[in-house]
């Protein structure tokens, strides 16, 4: 999860553990060298049934959002991008040479439901009718979809201090 960004130690000048960049800002996907090729050539759908935002610290409050629907947690897709990474990466088994596919999600301005929790950004949620446009449309077609999902079509599932990874929400 997250595009891998190689890093160099300021002390030694040698490569260190790459960092994963999880979110691509919609206002940067076309202009940033880090994102632009993937935005042009490797858009994807990232499936989900909810997402979490936090507010505050020590303790943080966790807010789980999803879509309205007939099901308790209706499936949806985020606007995503992917690319490969080949290099050294630290895993649970130590440093290894890897050849992996990484993904990220695109973020935009928040809607009225998410904004009180995260005032700057929210993940771009796509309507199923827009999947084809996101995947195969022009850059302009894809940019037109980078907007907040309608707040009245979403709901807050659960919030609290102890629900950071609560899969029951």
Q: Could you explain the architecture of this structure?
A:
By secondary structure, this protein is mainly β. It has helices spanning 36-41, 131-136, 139-143, and strands at 3-8, 15-21, 23-25, 43-48, 51-55, 61-67, 76-91, 94-108, 122-123, 125-126, 154-160. β7 and β8 form a beta hairpin. The longest helix has 6 residues, at 36-41. The protein is globular.
Basic shape:
globular
From the helix content, strand content and strand pairing, which structural class follows? Answer: mainly beta
How many DSSP H or I helices? 3
- Proportion of β residues? 35-45%
Short structural summary:
The chain is mainly β. It has three helices and eleven strands.
Write out key terms for the chains shown.
globular, 169 residues, three-stranded antiparallel β-sheet, mainly beta, single chain
List the helices and strands and how they pair.
Blueprint: E1 3-8, E2 15-21, E3 23-25, H1 36-41, E4 43-48, E5 51-55, E6 61-67, E7 76-91, E8 94-108, E9 122-123, E10 125-126, H2 131-136, H3 139-143, E11 154-160
């Amino acid at each position: 999860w997250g595009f891998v960004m190689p890093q160099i130690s300021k002390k030694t000048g040698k490569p260190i553990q790459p960092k994963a960049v999880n979110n691509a800002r919609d206002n940067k996907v076309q202009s940033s060298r880090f994102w632009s090729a993937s935005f042009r050539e490797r858009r994807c759908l990232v499936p989900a049934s909810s997402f979490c935002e936090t507010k505050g610290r020590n303790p943080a409050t966790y807010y789980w959002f999803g879509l309205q629907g007939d099901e308790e947690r209706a499936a949806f897709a985020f606007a995503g991008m992917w690319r490969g990474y080949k290099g050294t990466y630290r895993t649970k088994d130590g440093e290894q040479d890897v050849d992996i596919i990484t993904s990220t999600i695109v973020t935009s301005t928040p809607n009225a439901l998410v904004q009180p929790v995260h005032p700057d950004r929210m993940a771009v949620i796509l309507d199923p009718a827009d999947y084809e446009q996101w995947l195969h449309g022009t850059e302009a077609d894809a940019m037109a979809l980078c907007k907040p999902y309608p707040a009245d079509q979403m709901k807050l599932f659960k919030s609290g201090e102890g629900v950071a990874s609560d899969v029951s929400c």
